[in-house]
Design brief:
Distance between the termini: 36 Å
Helix content: 40-55%
Strand content: 5-15%
Radius of gyration: 16 Å
Largest sheet: 5 strands, mixed
Shape: globular
Order of helices and strands: HEEEHEHEHHHH
Length: 185
Amino acid sequence: ALDALAEELAGAERFAFDTEATDVRAMTATMVGISFSTTPGRGSYVPVGHITGEQLPLELVRARLAPALARAGVPKYAHNAGYDVMLLRRHGFEVAGPLFDTMIAAWLIDPATESLGLKNLVWSRLGIEMTQIQELIGTGRGRKTMAEVEIARCGPYACADADMALRLYDVLEPELREKQLWSLY
């Protein structure tokens, strides 16, 4: 499956990606997994750092998938891309552009919005309700990290994040151009 994903990404004209990690601070987080979407409605999740469950060694994942992320000229989309790119770089992946950050695009379109989080943005722009992270990791004292979440629960959540970044691009990019914000972006 990893080889099939690597082949799909190598031939993709564009793709979205997202990372799952142990912390909201990219400089201290450990990567738990990476998700990709090349087509709206589809995603792939590659687990690398869950505490339990069958997953792949990070070195193997890096060897197979790093070339696609480093391929210049292939548009890549992410929400809050700065976090993902920093986390990926800390784990040995380079991400070459062009890179489209749906969070920055949404802010440029409406700087007064309070819906810059992916789940809120997807609801307001696409009318799709996504699983909230609290449903996976909990809150308060019982809160756990993504590394503790079962792969079977984390995978669909992570795939949805990449899928929605791809779908948001298709809505936000034309709006940036229509509002003559593309050059600013």
